[in-house]
Amino acid sequence: MPNQMIPEYTILGSFGELYDTEGKFMSNIQEISVSIQIDRQDIMMSGSRRVGYKYTSVRGEGSMRGFKVSSTMARRIASVMRNDRAAQWVGTIRCVLNDPESIQDSSGAPQREEISLERCKWWGVNLGWAVNQIVEEDTPFTFQNIRWLDAITGDGETITQPPSTPSNVWPNDVSQIPAVPET
Fold this sequence. Notes:
The protein is mostly beta strands.
């Protein structure tokens, strides 16, 4: 029987951190969603019914949701509405996942994921409120580059995968399966 995924290695979003262009921790952000879309063009090939694909462009999109604690973000985004000659605000977002139970590196420290979303542009701001409700802001953005500053790697990928070799390589006796490192 293949080894089971180790539940403690799953990453808890509560340990996510978001930093703005100036490196300030954005404690009010509760959720960020980032996607990279790869655009393609269908390529019809003679002599075949099959469609091939050609990668044509790539784009990054995302949104962040959080509690409203100040007007700073809204004012930055809306500056182009107040001044026709104002340049659109362009910045960087740094996202960190730092779960203390993540897979450990060779020194025994938990690994972390850190990415930098570069040349971000924000495309809207929602203003308003409702009686007896915490005010939240949903802010869509795009980005032109992504850099991995740190990544979670290691045996978490191999531990969760069944062996690709004959079953006699994987121990039938569960006591022979490598133990989860203690923290």
